[in-house]
Amino acid sequence: MPPPSLAAAQDQVAANAAGNGIDARRRAGKGKKVHPLPDAGTTMGDGVGMGGGESRKGRPEWMTPAGAAGVLWRHPLPVVFACGLLLFMGVEYTIPMVPHAAPPLDLGFLATAAMHDGIAARPWLNSLLAALNTVFVAMQTAYILWAILAEQRPRAAIATLMMFTCRGLLGCSTQLPLPAEFLGSGMDFPVGNVSFFLFYSGHVAGAVIAAADMRRVGRLRLAALYDALNLIQGVRLLACRGHYTIDLAVGVGAGLLFDMLAGRYLDSKNVDSGENRCCSSCQKALFSQKLTS
């Protein structure tokens, strides 16, 4: 049996050798990605190292019953749209088409049939509703002009210019027939009951642009009022057969789209993205015009 001093020296040499081996392995493995060993009881292909995105059987987690329930709970809107896709894929191949000699089928016209009959029997009511609608259009126009001239916020005006230009192009490209039950009035806008494009509704799109601008600057109550009047306007246009339902729906989308495009245009010109005020050069031009006037 070696003396205690010799045994201690041998233990120190063995410890140093073990430490040197560990350091060597660390240096050799430096910079390499080390994956943890699988737990006991798991086998290859059990989904280890998949970041939790796949189940133990190799399927994506959302394909399991629990995963599908979680997706439905967290993302109900895409699920509803997916169901709508499946529904209308079936409708597309089974719905009968309207014959070429028949009038267009419009569910909005069917829903407002009683209102249409009541307005048709009272010409004075038709003129009154047309006049009120024209006043609402004037309110939209006045607000948009006020925003650019008095408050120097051109976004709504630019969106309106884009919207009406696109509406004119689409109206020239595809002209839908005027509904046979159309109730015109000399008080309607355009004033004098002149001809106008049906697709899409500039009445609705203009109100959407104005309301979006109001929300942007915190005029929430005024925006809610315009939304309510826009809804009433849409019902009146359907009852008087001044627009098809699709004209109104696309009018809402057009208002939102061109408001967004106008905002992107102003952002590209380094205009303040908060309230979208005029750029410095525009303000100088407006200021010089005020001085000269």
From TrEMBL:
Annotated keywords: Membrane, Transmembrane, Transmembrane helix
Domain of life: Eukaryota
Biased composition (Gly residues): 44-53
Alphabetical list of Pfam families matching this protein: AtPDCT1_2 (PF24788)
Stretches the record annotates as Disordered: 1-60
Domain AtPDCT1/2 transmembrane, first and last residues per copy: 105-264
GO molecular function, one term: diacylglycerol cholinephosphotransferase activity
Listed Low complexity bias regions: 7-21
Residue stretches spanning the membrane: 77-95, 128-149, 156-178, 190-212
Protein name: AtPDCT1/2 transmembrane domain-containing protein
Lineage per the UniProt record: Eukaryota, Viridiplantae, Streptophyta, Embryophyta, Tracheophyta
